[in-house]
Amino acid sequence: MTVVDVFNLQKEKISEVDLKSEVFDVPIKQHILHQVVVSQLASHRSGTADTKMRSEVSCSGAKLWRQKGTGRARVGSGSSPTRRGGGVAFGPSPRKYIQKVPKKVRKAALCMALTDKVQSDHFIVVDRFELPEIKTKNFVEVMKKFAVDKVLIVTEDRSPNLEKSSKNVPWIKVMRYEGINVYDILKYDHFILEQSAIPKIEEALIS
Question: What is the DSSP letter of 87?
Fold first, then answer.
């Protein structure tokens, strides 16, 4: 078990919480993290780039001029890639960039990413991240108390005040615990987690 402090929004320690070692204290393997991150980024690619091949270009099939007797080079179709207005040779066509990764590997990578944050002391647990009103200034003041920059905040339930207050802060991302992923955990320097979301994350990753 790994024990971490639990803070309120004034950064006052109010308790401690035990983190299961199966999730927050596992060996970190760089190649697995790399594989999962590449898979995530690849799945976000649209893959819609498309060019017209010579068979798709609107062009007459007639021979441009007779084969012999003109003193010019022999030519075939006007849709040839070597001619202006012709088709594109070896151009891109719509495709899927998805790289499938086994579910067990994805879970293992998520545990490694969480472990990395715990071991680097960039893991902060708060009892409840509830703001009394929608105000960006108040939210930024809370972040200054924790002296953090580039933060991923994970909550148990939807928090409209928090989400709207942080919307205009470019170095903050707020999400529910169901959406946590390896890329976002590694992308942001600090990880703030609501205490009530810890058991649900552990349950999802251990099962």
Answer: P
pLDDT for 135-158, tens place per residue? Answer: 999 999 999 999 988 999 999 988
Whole-model pTM above 0.85? no
Average pLDDT over residues 13-25: 92
The count of domains in the chain is 1
d(C-alpha 159, C-alpha 117), whole Å: 23
Tens of pLDDT, residues 55-84: 899 988 888 899 999 999 888 888 999 888
117 within domain boundaries: yes
Domain span at residue 154? 2-26+102-206
Q: 49 φ, ψ to 5°?
A: -60, 135
CA distance linking residue 32 with residue 17, whole number of Å: 28
The whole-angstrom distance between residue 123's C-alpha and the CA centroid of its chain comes to 19
Q: Which residues contact 4 (CB under 8 A, 6 or more apart)?
A: 16, 17, 19, 118, 123, 125
Please report, to the nearest 10 degrees, the dihedral formed by the alpha carbons of residues 150, 145, 157, 98 taken in order: 10
